[in-house]
């Protein structure tokens, strides 16, 4: 499976302390994509589900907190359906709150409804349209739809939307590959990104 990155704990891509997994590869190439570097999976090495599981165990151990949810994004997760199913099965070993983003609308995912979609909690579907980016906590643009596959998490997510005051924000993580910014980006994302990278690097120097 082609996994570009994984981070924990992330708090701005769903409620609670979440493991976020970015799968590589996407043919849609939406204008204004937040992760254009993940569209081409050619240079991404394949990893096994065992390596992914061990990485999560290390994350949990170092962070000192439990996994309260998983968010799977990309790239386009449904371009690797077999790998996506493996990841979802692994996620259920930790918790049942699994959120998946897709640039496809749900009708286009009909063949995956029984084996993949029915095994997740929330699906956020639809292509990213930059002109419709209005700062929703989890939707990149207003055309996208939040589908509660598991109704038991609806109240949890609605509370999260309320706590976020209907808006999104970004978080910065320092990794061996540099600074990674998570969250639903705004149209002026690049300007905000540079600001947060500068702040993150300043904090790193303070702790050296």
Query: End-to-end span in angstroms?
Result: 36 Å
Q: How are the strands of the largest sheet arranged? A: 1-2-3-4-5-6
State the secondary-structure class.
Answer: alpha/beta
| SSE succession | EEHEHEEEHEEH
Q: Work out the number of β strands.
A: 8
Rg from alpha-carbon coordinates: 16 Å
Note poorly predicted spans.
none
As a percent range, the share of strand residues is 15-25%
> How many domains comprise the coordinates?
1
Helix content: 25-40%
- Anisotropy-based shape: globular
* Count of helical regions: 4
| Average pLDDT taken over every residue | 90
Q: Describe the main β-sheet briefly.
A: 6 strands, mixed
Description:
There is one protein chain. A hairpin with a 7-residue loop joins strand 1 and strand 2. The strands form 2 sheets. Strands 1-2-3-4-5-6 form a 6-stranded mixed β-sheet, covered by helices on one side. Strands 7-8 form a two-stranded antiparallel sheet. The protein has 208 residues and is an alpha/beta fold. The mean pLDDT is 90. It is built from 4 helices and 8 strands. The chain has one domain. The chain is globular and about 50 Å long. Helix content is 26%, strand content 20%.
What keywords describe this structure?
208 residues; alpha/beta; six-stranded mixed beta sheet; two-stranded antiparallel sheet; 4 helices; 8 strands
Task: Write a brief caption for the model.
The chain is α/β, with parallel strands linked by helices and 208 residues long.
Please render the helix and strand layout as text.
Layout: E1 3-10, E2 18-23, H1 49-63, E3 69-74, H2 81-91, E4 98-101, E5 122-125, E6 145-148, H3 154-163, E7 171-175, E8 178-182, H4 189-206
Parallel strand pairs: 2-3, 3-4, 4-5
Antiparallel strand pairs: 1-2, 5-6, 7-8
């Amino acid at each position: 499976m082609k996994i570009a990155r994984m981070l924990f704990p992330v708090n701005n891509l769903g409620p609670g302390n979440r493991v976020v997994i970015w799968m590589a590869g996407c043919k849609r190439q939406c204008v204004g994509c937040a992760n254009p570097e993940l569209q081409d999976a050619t240079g991404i090495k394949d990893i096994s589900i065992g390596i992914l599981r061990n990485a999560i165990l290390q994350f949990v151990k170092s962070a000192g907190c439990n996994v309260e949810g998983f968010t799977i994004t990309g790239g386009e997760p449904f371009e690797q359906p077999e790998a996506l199913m493996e990841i979802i099965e692994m996620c259920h070993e930790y918790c049942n709150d699994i959120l998946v983003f897709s640039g496809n609308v749900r009708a286009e995912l009909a063949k995956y409804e029984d084996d993949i979609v029915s095994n997740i909690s929330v699906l956020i579907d639809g292509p990213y349209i930059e002109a419709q980016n209005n700062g929703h906590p989890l939707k990149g643009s207003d055309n996208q739809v939040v589908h509660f596959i598991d109704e038991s998490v609806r109240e949890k997510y609605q509370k999260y939307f309320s706590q976020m005051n209907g808006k999104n924000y970004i978080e910065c993580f320092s990794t061996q590959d540099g600074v990674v910014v998570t969250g639903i980006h705004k149209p002026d994302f690049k300007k905000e990104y540079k600001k947060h990278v500068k702040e993150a690097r300043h904090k790193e120097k303070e702790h050296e």
